[in-house]
Amino acid sequence: MSIVEMNFSAIAPLLTLATAALLVLILDLILPYERSRPWWYAVALGGILLAGWYTLSLWSSGAATSQAVFGGAYSLDRFGLLFGMIVLSAAFLAVLLSFFRKERDVSGYLALILWAAMGMMVLAGAGNFMTLFLGLELLSLSLYVLVAFGERDTKAKEAGFKYLVLGSVASAAMLYGLGFIYGQTGSMDFTALIAGWSDGASTLMQVGVGLVVLSFAFKLALVPFHKWAPDVYQGASAPVTAFMTVGTRAAAFAGLTRFLLAVVPQGETSLLVPLWALAGLSMVVGSLGACVQTNVKRLLAYSGIAHVGYLSLSFLGLSDQGVSAGAFYLMAYLFMNLGAFAIVVWLSRNGQEGESLEDLAGLFRRRPVLAGTMTLFMLSLIGFPTTAGFSGKLIIAAAALSSGVGDVAAWLVGGLAVTTAISAYAYVKVIMAMLGTSEAGMEVRRENLDAVEVAVAAEPTQETRDSTGTPIQPRMSSVEIGYSWSLALVVAVCVAGTLYLGLMPRVALDLATNLLPMT
Amino acid sequence: MESTTLVWIMLLPLLGSAIIGVGRKGLSRNAAGWLGSLVVAVSFVLTLQAMGQLPATGVPLRQSLFVWGQSLPFELHVGLMADALTLWWLLVVTGVGFLIHVYSIGYMADDKGFARFFAELNYFIFSMALLVLADNFVGLLVGWANVGFASFLLIGFWTEKAEARAAANKALLINIAGESAMVVALALMVREFGSLAYAEIFSQASGATPGIVTAISLLLLVGIVTKSAQLPLHTWLPDAMQGPTPVSALIHAATMVTAGVYLVIRAFPLFSASPVAMQTVAVIGALSALFGAIVATRQFDIKRVLAYSTMSQLGYMLMGAGVGAYAASAFHFFTHAFFKALLFLGAGMISHHLSGEQDIRKMGGLGRQLPFVYWTFLAGVLAISGAPGFAGFFSKEEILAAALHEGHVGLWLIGVVTAGLTAYYMARLFILIFGGEASETESNHVHRGRGGVMGFPVAVLAVASTLSGLIAIPGITQVPGTYLAPVFARFGHEAVHVDSFGFPVILVLGMAAIGFIVGLKLFGPSGQGRARAQRSLQRRLGGPVANAFYLDDLYVWGAASIGRWAKVGALRVQSGFVRRYALTFFAGFAAFVFYFLLL
């Protein structure tokens, strides 16, 4: 084997993310907390922007057509770069959402977001088993910690633990599967996998494919490998959940697509059948599950399960059209989902996220603009025409029906329509809560909070001093966050994206086509 | 022909909505109300101007806007298109829309959400204009969904009322169900025609795979049934009466609910390419007409009577479209918009007078107190009952005659029975409100002297309800037929049309006359029905008719059962124990390995 050519410009986005993460940690070490804290965020955001700029220039310089680098380990095609951009956007918005974190060690948290994003990009561009697994583990390990992040937040700890335990099983399945396939083909490169079928006896190959698909299904939270998702998404803080729901899904979708394209022979649909079954199950379970929730984060977790079911319709024909539709769907999901989480962060009180329907009660009276944007995101998650959700569903349904698998496509698209109608109940419930009057209990709670605030402002009492006698500042203003430019920016971007993709998605569609020169 | 003004017909109301919505705290009531009305008036004038520009050859006016997508398997250039059908609808949307805006200035005068009301009303006009102006199915669906959302906002306008919120919720959910079926229809169009533009789809429709065209039409029909409140998905419309009365008049009678009829006529090349779909449209229409009329006979809320009546009249329109009498159907939409809006606005004046009372059993003797409402309401009653010479007579008879002409005797019979029932329940409504002695309900004297601003629209609509039928007297005039003919000729079609009603019209008139007289007798000052009705005030009405055959209860029960089941299931499955989760994981794991081993 010849020495691999080191093409650093090809992985400039990855290097940027890694360096930015280290820089954040170093800043924490050398500067005092108060002075360095703003810089952590600046470096993290700057790093993501720079990585995005590198990605864009790789895209436009035509590197996108120059295929593989590092001896085929990493692919620089339109497909990988586009998913890289989706991941970077999710990471950027997630960092903006994290401005309100009060933890002392938030530098580590930011570094982990950057590393997780790096892992996702590696996965999206994987060219052989090594990079595939490397990317998957980098993102998983970072996310285990991110989920559990939070001072004395036992729910987050529990969520992190659950994710770690079950995620390890999924990783083991992945390793097994990759091992089986390697045993059959003797190669780790995606380009050489298809040969594994030629020997006739291919049981190893089949089970290997099955295990890898299963492990991706876990990361995507497809039913029945979804059960960690509601608990983990609810337990983790909203910025982390927002990042995970979009970033992990984009990366896992990209990785799975690459793997399937490499391993599934043309027209061999029997290898895809389990995925179709999971897609159908996910739509049903996700929609029904969302309907019975009273916690917005949990509701969005179930909604995510249903959406990943819709997304999986792009595996029907595994065609260029299907993959493009999936990529477009993820862009739509990025905006509408992150937007909804931004509102959850915005409605935080006393460091508690505004995640219960009670917190939303009467929002149209109190904060009409916030309520209006939340309504838009909910409608988009339904798939309401004028919003991104509609274009996404239309394009993915059209691709599914044109995929040439006939009856299965018809059934699954029918399932899409029926479960859309069912899940509407869940999202409209959120809108109705905002439209309704604030419940009586809500009013009482607000008055109490105001009273507390007045008391704190007037005279520090015994309860508000810590053991050394210094007054404790309220961790956050005891009512909702009034106005914040970072949240406003996230919401504005998500509103614009949701409407743009819904009304004139031309540019996004152009980006999402011809993703598969690699076949 | 290229036009530059089409876009303003819809953008002006949107602009109005934005200005009033954003500036609702700063704008005075008069400013908000009149600005809202003015933009709709300008849209109306622009519509008239576009009618003038439309070439006699029937080539539609066009305005291209932007490229929606070009790198898909299909290209979509989004634009607007106005042919005779579009303008026909726009005329009513902006015309009646303007009148109802003006009426609302008076009706909503004391409401604290006055400016918000006009912002939402303008938003509705924008959406409805987009719906009829679109030259492709994406634009249509965007308008379609937004009229639904405007309707949601306006039904739930009084957000502090729990019933209003529940009604809004139901309307939105049912409409979304319809839209999700339509999304699949659009996806099928992409597959079959490789396009979503009207022109391309309609010109290929007759040569397409029959099964697919039927599937597309039936999926669209699901949306149509929800939007036009037809069986079996009509249950949101009676509840929608929780909204302010001008909303019921504009959205839930004159315009939005007719969007379904518009779509059947607009997409007639698709529907007519599938006999199954046409048959289904006609049958659903006829059954809904009968159902609505039957249920209306035992309602006591003035607006619920009118709501079921709307469902029934929409049924007539769909039946007409289903038998191929597109122009007759569009004509009935035209006259119905006038007389039903008139009846609703009259109902609004009555309940204003009675401090919000809507139960017709508590009314009576209002003829002397409200002579203006009495006479205008009478015009509406006669028009909807099909009294000869009034608007509803010509349009309804034309649909029935066309059904008979096409050999649909069964549908025709249903239509005739419905005509009799219609006359009956309208007579009942009328005489309970205006006849007999005044009941003890206090009239509302605090109500300000807004007579003019509310009276003017009512007077205009009363005149239109009386006279608008004259544009299509068989054998003499046939404005709708001639005006709309190019729409159908473009795709090589001709709407079914009859030149004379002939002998069967006597049967219809006889039925209607009997119904009317029975209604007047039973519920007149000394009628038995009136006495029985007043006795029933104390208890909830039983019986399948009064409860609309329990369909709504059935749906509510069904949804609640599914919800309960899902909740129990979710709690049991999602127990929170990681070992249970692992167990499910391994079950899935085993199934996966098993499948791939045996592959």
Would you kindly provide a written description of the structure presented here, covering whatever features stand out?
The complex is a heterodimer of chains A (519) and B (599). With 519 residues, chain A is an all-alpha fold. Chain A has 20 helices and 2 strands. In chain A, helix 4 (106-124) runs parallel beside helix 9 (238-263). Chain B is globular and about 85 Å long. In chain B, helix 2 runs antiparallel to helix 3. Chains A and B meet through helix 6, helix 7, helix 8, helix 10 and helix 16 of A and strand 1, helix 5, helix 6, helix 24 and helix 25 of B.
Can you give keywords for this protein?
heterodimer, A: 519 residues, mainly alpha, 70% helix, B: 599 residues, 25 helices
Concise structural overview:
Chain A has 519 residues and is mainly α. In chain A, 70% of the residues lie in helices and 1% in strands.
The structure class of chain A reads mainly alpha
Low-confidence stretches of chain B: none
Q: How many β-strands of chain B, per DSSP?
A: 2
Number of strands of chain A: 2
User: What share of residues of chain A is helical?
Assistant: 55-70%
Helix count, DSSP H or I runs of 4 or more residues of chain B: 25
Residues in β-strands, percent of chain B = under 5%
- Straight-line N-to-C gap of chain B: 60 Å
The helix/strand class of chain B is mainly alpha
Give the averaged pLDDT of chain B, no decimals.
89
Radius of gyration from the alpha-carbon trace of chain B, in angstroms? 25 Å
